Every structure is written in C-alpha cells, then in structure tokens.
What does this fold into?
Amino acid sequence: MRATQMVQAIKAPWIIFSSFLRKIYIQRGLIKNFVIRDLRSRYIGSFMGFFWSVIHPIVLVVSYTFIFAVVFKIRPTPSSGTDNFPLFLFCGILPWLFFSDTLLRSSTAIIENSNLITKTLFPSEILPLTILLSGLVNHAIGFGILLVMLFWVVGKVSILILLMPVYLFFLMLFTLGLSWLISSLNVFVRDVSQILSVLLTFWFWFTPIFFEPRQIANLEWLAVLMRMNPLAHVVSGYRDCILHVPGRAPDIGSLLILAASSLLVFILGGLFFRNIKREFVDVL
It folds into this structure.
C-alpha cells in the first residue's frame, strides 16, 4: 500500500505537468500569432527594422574586443581553438544575449498583458514562450553573423557544429523554466524584475564569456561555481562545437549536467506557474 502511494506521489506532478504542456500545444496557433505580433512590435515602424538585430551583437563584440583585446591585451589560449578574440567572444556572448534578453522581457510579460488576463480566459503561460520564440529569431540572425565571421577567420566549419542545436534546446528549456518562474513572481512582488537585472549583471561576469573554465581551474571555489552554472556549460558547448580543437570532443559530463539542470528548472518553473496563475486576476 505504501509503495503504491509513493508511486502515485511520484507520478502526480508529471501528470499535472504533461497536462500543462498539452494545453500549451493546443494553443500553438495563438502562440504563432503572438510571436508575429511581438516581432512586429519590436521592428515594424523602426527605420532599420531587423537590422538592429545585426547591429546590437556586433557593437557589443567590437566594444568588448577593444576593452579586453586592445586595452588589456587579453588573448584566447591555444586550447580554445582560435587566437581570434572577437570570434572567441562572439561564441560565448551569443547564447548569453538570447538568455538574458528573454528573461528580462519575460519578467514583465504578465503585467504588460494584464488586460488580456483579467478580461478573458487567456492562457498566460504562452507569454514567456512567445518572447522566447521571438528571441530565437534574433539568435538565428546572430548565429548567421557568427558563421560569416567563422568562414572569414577560419575558412571552414567543423562537423561538430551539428551538435549546437542540442545545447540550444537545453538552453531554451532552462530559459523558459526560469521565465515562467520570474514572470509569475513579478506579478506579486514587482521588485523581482529589478532584482533580476542586478543578478544578471553578476551572472554575466561569472559565466566564462571572456575566458575559458580551464583558466580558473586553480581557483576551486570559482571552478565549483562554474560547474553549477548552466550558462557556463552552454557557452563551453557552443565553443567546443564551433571552435573545434582536433582530438577534443564536447564534454559529455558537462552536457549531462546542463540537461539535468535544464529539465529540472523547466519542470519546476512550469509547475510553479501553473499552480500560481489562478491568483493573477486577483492581484492584477
């Protein structure tokens, strides 16, 4: 009897979460319309439109390259797969921009669409998802720029680049799970979005965007922090796939840690959002 109760206790959250995902899938037509609406609101009417998606990452790479490569004379180590700092930097900053932009925009998504939530039976869980899918378009544009830079500097592309969608998939799960959590919390505590901005600043500098994890191996506390940081595994995975070092494959252990943490955050974030969304109308 006790064993049966334990099995039911384990199965119950999964049944609830699978029902939550099924409802999202049913709304796929609405999700598509909201993604199109989000892209139009960001770029339609803008003088340069989608060109801003190209300018933003390029300006960041150029400015950081000037500071770190020109002023501080920092160069990638031979184990990174390239001695070109802009290429090394772009590989790391591209997934970070997708993550941080999605999280910041999702944090206020419920509040900004309060008129839909309070007046209709609106599936509010799709709002962070539409922002993530909209950000995926910008990420694809940035990846296109990265490919051009890769061909320009290296002249070839490694076959391992085909593994990049695996890292992107788990990054999307992790980002969406956090987006559900943050967006729902911000409905009740409006300081959450401001706290998030501060946390992302620290998170940025503790992610190996400007350096390799191997370079801080002698700092045990920092190395442990890197292993606990899913974005560190994503950045390292992107670099291993794009800047392939002959004889070295992407770290499977790192990928497993990323997969486990992403799935955990995705499920917990979805369950939290599902359970708390019924209170949105009372607060908004």
In short: The CA atoms of residues 96 and 231 lie 7 Å apart.
